[in-house]
Amino acid sequence: MAKVGIVGAGPAGLLLAHLLHREGIEAVVLEARSREYLETSPHRIRAGVLEWGSKEILRRAGLGQRMLEQGLEHRGVYLAFDGALHRLDFPSLTGKSIWVYGQQFVVQDMIRLHLAQGGEIRFEHEVLGLEEDAGGLWVVYRTPEGATERMRCDFVVGADGSHSRLRGQIPGARLHQKNYPFAWLGILAEAPPAAEELIYASHPRGFALFSMRSPTRSRNYLQVGVEERLEDWPEERIWAELSERLGGVAEVRPGPLLEKSLTPLRSLVLEPMQHGRLFLMGDAAHVVPPTGAKGMNLALCDAVLLYRALLAYYRQGEEGHLLRYTQEALRHVWQAELFSYFMTTLLHTPVDAFDDGLRTAQLRHLAESPHLQRFLAENYVGLHTSGRYPGWVGEGVLA
Ligand code: PHB
């Protein structure tokens, strides 16, 4: 029997497991894929931006050593439009900064540390469903050998990603959804980034993002139509398009491609995020378009909130935080949904000319208005999510 059964070894599941384990509360992580796949497979676009508060969460959870050594602290981002670069300076707008550090590295660090400290992660264990009987709540899963087994848990946590199987286990839940008429074509290349900080470029031909994983490795994205295929985008076409959309404000330096992928953009919120002794975290409960770089940050916030609630239950027998989990989480979730929607509509070229007029007006306003710049910067560094007003999400929980 495990006290807490956690489904999915992504940032949310692993952080929760690690925090509980540190407090002596037994948690078992079940993960359908292999450790190697999780640590190395470039299967899907994963953002690489940690809010100020997320950096603090990882540091205080004892998971931040490599991030602090190898991650890149960024004190601003650029917006590019109308042929000019506009820099938003985070310290002067918010007093904070962000960290650029790939999600895959975060997951590697978490797996390594959790296992080294005696934590339990069962890889290649596919969860099939839940059962409840007089004996309690059971997670049913298939072992790597193909046997079907079940494990009794006090609580089950679904952190099984955007295609979550456990999402369907919340009767009567409402799914608030929005699909956008764009996708992102993402590349990872062995090439120096276009600038030392991220550039979000709005261009009549479409949005482009210039990001990085290190000073020699760039991570760039192009807005494309949802119907496009990877085969339509040979390397030369990608570099030419990136260069065109950067609009001459900086130089794109091509290099060998390490990876290429397509992701449609969508927003999704499930409400409630819990039912009885089942709780959802991260992408299983909510999805944001990547434009605001919020996905991993939201997942880490959920894990901290649920950790606090489980700790109160196991230490004081107090159930209030568990009962209020959805209500508390939805505060940061909707804030991030708002910001991700704002960034997506602000920066992507829409089909409709009227929408484009509104968007251009807002971009020009942003270039001139310290108030709008502060709105963007506060949301980007996460003052309203992990670094939430009036206090930090880990306040009184993570020393
Ligand atoms: C990334 O580096 O992969 C990245 C950065 C910022 C975003 C999305 C993705 O908004």
TrEMBL record:
The keyword Oxidoreductase applies. InterPro entries: FAD-bd (IPR002938), FAD/NAD-bd_sf (IPR036188), PheA/TfdB_FAD_monoxygenase (IPR050631). GO terms for molecular function: 4-hydroxybenzoate 3-monooxygenase activity; FAD binding. Coiled coil: none annotated. The keyword Secreted does not apply. Its EC number is 1.14.13.2. Keywords: NAD, Oxidoreductase. It holds the Pfam family FAD_binding_3. SUPFAM superfamilies: FAD-linked reductases, C-terminal domain, FAD/NAD(P)-binding domain. Residues 2-338 form the FAD-binding domain. NCBIfam families: PRK08243.1. This is p-hydroxybenzoate hydroxylase. It comes from Meiothermus luteus.
